[in-house]
Amino acid sequence: MREQLLLFCNWSTLGVCAALKLPQISAVLAARSARGISLPSLLLELAGFLVFLRYQCYYEYPLLTYLEYPVLIAQDALLLLCVFHFNGNVKGAAPYLAVFVASWFVLPLQKWIIDLAMNLSTFISTASKFAQLQYLWKTRDSGAVSALTWSLASYTCATRIITTLMTTSDLTTGHSMLNGSPTVMLSMKSHD
Q1: Please, are residues 53 and 66 in contact by the beta-carbon 8 Å criterion?
Q2: Among 2, 67, 129, 170, which residue is least crowded by beta carbons within 10 Å?
């Protein structure tokens, strides 16, 4: 029973994450606007995903416990390009993408760097949520954000807490995931 639950949680999380940001991306493309999406929030979320993926790779955790992160990073990178495109400045994404690529190589240079980054990822995730909430409060417009994305993210956070506890018992990553589900909730659209 335990193995079946673990297998179900891993594969369903991967399947859901394969489409997690697609409603968001679709809403942005349909609206031809990035209205309602906070650039700082998106950048912080991307940073959190990158740190989490690098941490998992560094400690050689089982691939199925983090395989969705490359997909999430690719979807966030596409969303980032959409934001810059609809704001009229696609080239403006280049410095951010360069920093993310450089970070991939810097994070594992020393064990303390990757550990510190992972411990800070909860703060990064919280800052991402706060930035999105602040942006929504300021603009009073959820624009092209998606409630379906929030629902899917909530599911994947719950399943990842289960798989982390069952596979690695790494409380650092489990704690970080507890903070993940509301990330998109703060940017949800009421009529999705």
Answers
A1: yes
A2: 2
Q: CA–CA separation, 151 vs 54, rounded Å?
A: 26
Give the tens place of pLDDT for each residue, 111-165.
999 999 998 887 887 788 778 777 777 776 665 556 677 677 778 888 888 888 8
Of 25, 39, 17, 36, which is closest to residue 189 (Cα–Cα)? 36
From residue 105, give the alpha-carbon distance in Å to each of 47, 50, 51, 102. Answer: 13, 11, 11, 5
Contacts of 144 (CB under 8 A, 6+ apart): 24, 27, 28, 30, 31, 33, 34, 35, 36, 37, 189
- C-alpha distance from residue 70 to each of 85, 100, 135, 141, 180 (Å): 22, 13, 27, 30, 16
* Separation of alpha carbons 148 and 170, rounded Å: 29
- Phi-psi category of 88—alpha, beta or left, where left has phi over 0 and alpha has psi -120 to 50? left
Looking at the predicted structure, is the pLDDT value of residue 178 above 70? no
Where helices occur in the chain by DSSP H, the ranges are 2-19, 22-31, 39-58, 68-86, 93-106, 111-139, 147-167, 171-178, 182-185
User: Tokens at residue 172, please?
Assistant: 């650092």
